[in-house]
Design goal:
272 residues, mainly alpha, two-stranded antiparallel sheet, 2 strands, globular
């Protein structure tokens, strides 16, 4: 029961996020990114036996968000490079720092930091409100729907394991169902974009994006599972009862939003 209650609350929170203004959307994404990096640093400590500088790693995306409002994309890039160099320079000024500390800190900035930075840009770049809402709904909704297709496809038809050493529950049938769910979800979000958000997109773009998002979501889930397997943990956290931590919920979604961002930039939808 706790799992379903949490799921309903998460859906309500996502709906709220998509109705507020762009600054608050960015702040929410930055907050999620902080929690994800914090959880990843704890997992890396279990893997390597060395504790990363959690606050530095977790502050990566929030600092990028502040830098975006101060200096746009250029400011964001400068801040990101400065933080990475600061983390890498720790060993220059503290040569006795234990092995794995600097590497773990930088790793948390790269993942989940960079995918979440992509999600952040998807929410704050100067597109119209209708486009921003539509693409965020797409990145979050299609990823979640393709994941649900994968779960039920694996439950009903799954026999052959996909990556048993990384994620024993994932099956080839689940992956096929996931790839079917992507275009289906793309079609559904296209309808929402047309009728609710007031955005006008060619349907073929949304169905193709749906397939891309499904592939990226499946890979993102496997990447997260590989870290959990190495750390010997079932979930990254327990902030969401029945669902695990923030990173457990947004592992595939963060990558899918990056994919949507790149597609939208190529298609010229982001107002740049």
């Amino acid at each position: 029961m706790a799992r379903y209650i949490t799921a309903a609350l998460l859906l309500a929170f996502v709906a709220l996020m998509l109705t507020v203004g762009i600054p608050l959307i960015g702040a929410m994404i930055a907050l999620f990114a902080f929690g994800m990096a914090w959880e990843m640093s704890a997992a890396l400590e279990k893997i390597n036996g060395a504790k990363p500088y959690r606050l530095l790693a977790a502050a990566f995306v929030p600092v990028l968000y502040a830098a975006y409002w101060l200096g746009g994309i250029l400011g964001m890039g400068v801040a990101g490079l400065a933080m990475l160099m600061a983390a890498l320079a720790i060993r220059v000024f503290r040569p006795d720092v234990p092995a794995g500390v600097v590497e773990g800190t930088v790793s948390c900035m790269v993942y989940p930091g960079i995918p979440m930075a992509g999600m952040l840009l998807l929410g704050v770049l100067p597109a119209t409100r209708a486009v921003t809402r539509s693409l965020l709904i797409f990145g979050i909704g299609v990823s979640a729907l393709s994941d649900a297709f994968a779960m039920f496809g694996g439950m009903w038809f799954g026999k052959r394991k996909l990556c048993p050493k990384v994620s024993p529950n994932k099956t080839v049938a689940g992956l096929v169902a996931c790839l079917i769910g992507g275009p289906v979800g793309g079609l559904l979000v296209w309808m929402i974009a047309q009728w609710v958000c007031g955005a006008n997109f060619p349907v073929v773009h949304f169905m193709l994006m749906g397939l891309i998002v499904a592939m990226v979501t499946a890979l993102g889930d496997l990447i997260a599972s590989s870290f959990k397997r190495a750390a010997g943990i079932k979930d990254f956290g327990n902030i969401f009862p029945g669902h695990g931590g923030v990173l457990d919920r947004l592992d595939g979604i963060s990558f899918s939003c990056c994919a949507v961002l790149f597609y939208a930039l190529i298609a010229g939808w982001m107002g740049l």
